[in-house]
């Protein structure tokens, strides 16, 4: 019996070790993949910028010159629209590979959340900052970009006229931003991949917004996650530790 128990313990320890090693190797492979993807994205975005600017400019001039021919003008405007979409993708690629030290400064998290809400349409956003700290060390520009993305996504996911909830508070010594929408929520099979670059469930999405958000939050030493909200919808949570 003693030998059998010892063998069982050894097998359990070996299984735990193998599982940990597999997870470590998978994480390392993922980091290498993201690094290669980042390098490729940066080159692609830079190469696209100049010809895309020329394409968009000439298409806009062409659309203006075709004011007397509505059918031809619509075609030219479609070129402009698609050029703008590619421009947005190029901008997203550059944001995804953006590096550099954070410009962390003491700021008012409540004011930061309100500024992000004003940028996307505050009339549909219910803000709760009653328990928000007066000051927190953050890179204001980058964190506002994260909040704008989350609020914009929440408004798009929610039915017309439905309110979106957003808040900021301190939980366990960390600053927590929460954005809850009134949409269908995030399917379980998508929750694990929603923050991966180029993954999107939208027909015309770039799949970079949440990937950029996770990168920025990670640079702050924090985490971002999503869960089904009680009563329906998705709830995104950004948790940021103090600068220490």
Describe this protein's structure:
By secondary structure, the chain is α+β, with helices and mostly antiparallel strands. It has 6 helices and 7 strands, in the order H-H-E-H-E-E-H-E-E-H-H-E-E. The chain has helices at residues 2-65, 70-96, 109-120, 140-157, 188-191, 209-219, and strands at 105-107, 125-128, 136-138, 164-171, 174-180, 223-228, 234-241. A 5-stranded mixed β-sheet has the order 2-4-5-7-6. Strands 1-3 form a two-stranded antiparallel sheet. A hairpin with a 5-residue loop joins strand 6 and strand 7. Helix 1 packs antiparallel against helix 2, helix 3 (109-120) packs across helix 4 and helix 4 runs antiparallel to helix 6 (209-219). The longest helix has 64 residues, at 2-65. The protein is globular, with a radius of gyration of 23 Å. The model has no long low-confidence stretch (mean pLDDT 84).
The biggest beta sheet is recorded as: 5 strands, mixed
Give the strand line-up of the largest sheet: 2-4-5-7-6
Q: In angstroms, what is the radius of gyration?
A: 23 Å
Our count of helices gives: 6
Total strands = 7
- Summarize model confidence as the mean pLDDT: 84
The helix content, as a percent range, equals 55-70%
- Give me the secondary-structure category: alpha+beta
pLDDT < 50 runs, ≥5 residues: none
Please indicate the percent range of residues in DSSP E strands (runs of 2 or more).
Answer: 15-25%
| Helix/strand order | HHEHEEHEEHHEE
